[in-house]
Amino acid sequence: MKHACKEVSKLASDSLDRPLSFFERLKFKLHLSMCGHCRDFDSNITLIHNITEMMHATDYGQTRLSEQQRKRLHDSLNSSIE
User: Fold this and answer.
1) Biggest alpha carbon distance in the chain?
2) What's the structural domain count of the chain?
3) Which domain holds residue 56?
4) Which of 18, 31, 58, 63 could anchor a disulfide with 8, C-beta 3.0 to 4.6 Å?
5) To 5 degrees, how large is the angle CA 64–CA 67–CA 73?
């Protein structure tokens, strides 16, 4: 894995836990504009994060997924597999 990709994959993960600084966001967005592998990684890690949050909230009775949300989630999972 190239050094830049390794750094950007860490930023993708960090962005789920905290706001990135201006320069981190700039580096991140610029790299994603040129690297399809990192774009895919970012999409996948964001999808996994969102699914995990929804499952966690549902497990504790905080929310129920609407039919529309379930369909979107289903469609997102199917499109990420293709």
Assistant:
1) 43
2) 1
3) 3-81
4) 31
5) 85
